[in-house]
Amino acid sequence: MPKVLPELKTHPCIKKLETPVVTAADLPYPCSLVFNAGVIKYRGEYVMVFRDDYGVDRAGYENENKRFTGTAVGVARSKNGVDGWVFDPVPLIDSNDPLKDPETKRFYDPRVIEIDGRLLLCLAMDTRHGIRGAIAELSDDLRSWRLLSASVPENRNMVLFPEKIGGEYVRLERPMPVYSRGRDRFDIWLSRSPDLIYWGRSELVLGVESVPFANDKIGPTASPIKTEKGWLTLIHAVDRDDARGKNGWEKKWPKRYTAGLMLLDLEDPSKVLSVYPEPLIAPDTPLETDEGFRENVIFPCGMVAEESGEVKIYYGASDTCVCLATADVNDLLSLLL
Ligand code: BMA
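A: This is the predicted complex of the input protein with beta-D-mannopyranose.
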């Protein structure tokens, strides 16, 4: 597609794997697009929890105005976090499940984390009365789940810090205040909870105006990584230009998604210590700019810190497949100190 301006580049400390780690063809059940995946290391394996939109192909979408018939959340495991993903035979959650609560339309964009031996999922939850941010618990065998809490609308992009801070669970989140801001101007907030159910003491963390490469909205991406200097925290950032036209399968899609980086205070993570003023990961490979459902979308939901210092960043590319980028933790920190 034509070059998207202003030009934004991936920082040289980031290495992108050339081929996606998971594509739609890999799944053992219906899948048109597989993307936005949370990943953790769990019991000696890498566990991926991903989003699967299914029910239409590009020709049906573009020529016959058909739309996706469902959204599922699925689980896969791998020994090395790169290849050899083994998929559970059925999705964990399916929007066409006849037993689901009819108020809920679908769950998507999963983030997964282990806290004190409990496996927790953050999910976006579309309901008949608005978009909610949900927190759920996953069973040890990754085959079942139960909802613990869901926010009032409109909120999504929740991520949990990987441990309690000051005795409380803490999450980053992104409410969507459409009335007061006049248009998309959405920021990153934080809330605390004694039990993962009751959430409060909410505070603004970062406003969209503090991110020079965003003019629309920002949001949390993956659970932050603890370092001696602070919580290493990825964000997603959206710049919008309504003059942008046809994009991927869409007749018109004016937004570009990049990933950015910030450092939060260890003891009080509502305090921002530093924001890197340029994108960390921008859409700049052919797979990210010229192929896929919505081009120019980098949407990370998973970050794994290896003992070697390598940080694995899993991101949805073009809302189409799951890709992996890596960086050294010290290179990332040096952008922020
Ligand atoms: C956001 C979410 C994401 C998606 C992104 C780009 O609003 O819906 O799931 O990846 O848009 O389309």
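The pocket of beta-D-mannopyranose is lined by residues 36, 109, 257, 294, 297, 299, 316, 319 (CB under 6 Å). The chain has a mean pLDDT of 97.
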